[in-house]
Amino acid sequence: MSVVQEKVSVVRRAAPQGRRFVLTPTVTVYLALVALLVVGSVLVGLKGGVLLDEGGILNILTRSTVLGLVAVGQTMAIVTGSLDLSVAYLIGLCSLVAAETMAGDTSMIAPAVVLVLVVAASVGLVNGLVITVLKANAFIATLGVALILRGYLEHNYTGPAGSVPRAFQHLGYDRIGPIPAATLLMLLIAAGVWWYLRRTRTGYHMYAVGGDIEVARLSGVRTSRTIVTAHVLCSLMAGLAGIFLASRLGSGAPYVGMDAGYDLESIAAVVLGGTVLAGGRGGVVGTIGGVLILSTLDTVFDDLAVDPFFKNVVRGVVLIIAVALYARSKGNGRTS
Amino acid sequence: MSEVVARLDGITKSFLGVPVLRGVDLELRAGEVHALMGENGAGKSTLLKVLAGVHRPDSGRILLGGNEVSFATPRDAQAAGIAIIHQELNLLPHRTVAENVFLGREPVRRGQVDRRAMVAETRRLLDWLGEDGIDPEAGVVRLPVAQRQVVEIVKALSADARVLAMDEPTAALADHEVELLYDLVARLRDRGMAILYVSHRMREVFDLSQRITVLKDGAFVTCSPTEELTSDQLVRHMVGRPLDALYPERPTEPGEVRISLRDAGNDRVRDLTFDVRAGEIVGLAGLQGSGRSAIARAIWGVEPFTAGVLERDGEPVRIPNPRTAVRKGIGYVTEDRKGEGLALRQSVRDNALLVRRAALRGQAARRASDLAALLKSVNVVAQGPHQEVRYLSGGNQQKVVLGKWLAVRPNVLIVDEPTRGIDVGAKQAVYQLLRDLAADGMAILMISSELPELIGMSDRILVMHEGAIAGALPAGASEEAVMGLATGHGIGEVA
Fold it and tell me: According to the model, what pLDDT value does residue A289 have?
């Protein structure tokens, strides 16, 4: 991960004397990931299995794909000082829009994808406008939109609907070696978002708005536009997740996002990756690390056949430890 | 006479029907520092915000280089060459210097932010200001406050800024940092910048400005060259009271010893021996870092003494933490009113009762029946006890802080920079309040970096130098005597 190395060198340059090696959250999360892979391999090995065989890798990466898409979007919202609780229902809605529009017809794939993106962007726009124009707190605003989506889904659907053409299922199942094509696609998109946050003006402004919205406003940043943009992009990522799930499942599923808890799970991944929940610091690289840790944990637990309740206990403990570690290393001079 | 760069003409502005500016005129000239004075609430900050495009005037004109302009947003004002330094620091601590300087106007090249150009231009501006010690790629969080102020100024100076408006730029600075800022302002002025300088500090205004405009209750009072004004006249213009009434008389005969230090010390201060008696105000002078505040923090148990003896009403005591200090009847009005003194989003009532609720138990902690009397005793002007303190002026906030301590009836009060950032009228009220408390038997230890205030208020002045007491001076000592001791040169009389 060259990006991680770059971060370390930046920190070193900033602190020429004193501590030589500073653990930024981004470095920490990847070290933790390596440690988890080692420990997980040993534990699974003791039970006579292999964690990182082809099936294991496939399992980790497949889990990471949907969560990765959602969490990368969530990263933009959180960096901007907001957050999005509506992603889970939006994923369900988007999987339905995709599958019902396609209705088994290969020629409808492109229109369906476009339609999903339009729907997702509209929901993001609503989120952003409720926050900026109606001045609702982001937590409440997106919770409200989540409830509206839920009401719509519950009123209109009782179970899976629509169907995707066989050709479209390649997206969900094709692989290159042990790596699912969709995972590569997800990483490509994540790289794009990384570039967007770190290299474009709007990205800079997202960090500024999340860091201190008043400072940003007085500096001439269009704060409302920035927040709306972050929400539209966040929702678009959830839309992509919905498309991918439709491809895997073969049909649209209204509660697929909620059942997997992608709303809170994506926030957990972002925070685990070192992005500050209050905004202004963090980034996509850490988020991907956070996603990989959560998926690896799940895979290890599956291999060990651990009680699902205990699984959540461990996930909770991991999350709290991570955030406590980051809080202790605050003021370590991260500039972004 | 130099060129008029910007002119405000008959500016009026009301908020919710309350007039804040009533037809204010102002002319800013190239190469001139124009001070804007007035009490809090006089409309200084509002006028600045009109100039900055934050507020739109209800009527009146803004002329830049003779052309009428109208700003819808701060961005418009910035583009027109108006740079504003707001009262609070406006930087993102976790972004780099260059990222802060270009916030909101990042240069773009081939679709992405041109970081190289940003760094180069920031370096050029820093060099131009003679501040080449600041690394454009350093995180702001790593810079000392004085350098952050420089970054703030660099940030405000877009390529073609011709007007620089500063709203109390020294409020957050220590003494030696203020000197650096003076120097910087003078350099900018000499390069032809028109500078509007808002400050409460009389001396700054006389040191720096060529022209002074005074506002009172949103209306223009006077504008005149600085050299034609005396500080007495200036205060009269601002508050309608002469300066000599600023400090109340010292009538008191000190009573019994409340706090006594014998060879007390810790990591930061040493060999402290002095008493503070009921009814007297003892001033602590010294440069920033000389140990003034360290004494207060030691007495109050934040960083307790590790050597010597601390006596309270004649009994040796240990005060290992602030809670013990409170319970032993010592109040501490900290330097940082907004950060440490008040819960800004809570009501006047909650703030005033904060210490009582925290330090006392049972019925005594819940008692609120005397709230009205308490607030009255410190003369808080608020819409009512349920108003959030962040809406109060600095002076009224400080009165709430005093009230919060008086609620637990201490008989020793330590006040650190009690009038920082509050206007002359409110300062006078705070001075009178402190003197009244002393007259009622309070022992007061007062820390201040404003020498006139310290000298005007104190019955005795202890001057700190490098962690020890360099000397004690009687009431009414000269500023030269205090500075001599504080800088380690002079020899003072021992009181």
Answer: 96
Average pLDDT over residues B50-64: 91
Contact between B96 and A208 using a beta-carbon 8 Å cutoff:
no
Q: In whole angstroms, what is the distance from residue B84 CA to residue B374 CA?
A: 40
Say which CATH topology domain B4-244 has: Rossmann fold (3.40.50)
CB distance A215–B91 less than 8 Å? yes
Which positions in chain B have a beta carbon within 8 angstroms of at least one beta carbon in chain A?
54, 73-75, 78, 84, 86, 90-96, 99, 103-106, 108, 111-113, 137-139, 141-142, 155
- Measured CA to CA, the distance from residue B6 to residue B194 in angstroms comes to 8
> pLDDT tens for residues B220-255?
888 999 999 888 788 778 776 555 567 888 876 888
Beta-carbon neighbour count of residue A205 at 10 Å? 25
Tell me how close the Cα of B155 comes to any Cα of chain A, in angstroms: 9
Weakest-pLDDT range from A85-89, B124-128, B273-277 = B124-128
Inter-chain touch B103–A281, beta carbons under 8 Å? no
A299-330: per-residue pLDDT in tens?
999 888 888 888 889 888 988 988 888 877 65
Q: What is the pLDDT of residue A333?
A: 39
- Cα separation, A37 vs A53, in Å, equals 12
* Assigned CATH class of B246-329+410-495: alpha beta
Would you kindly state where each structural domain of chain B is located, as residue ranges?
Answer: 4-244, 246-329+410-495, 341-409
Q: How far is CA A178 from CA A45, A57, A58, A226, in A?
A: 20, 7, 6, 39
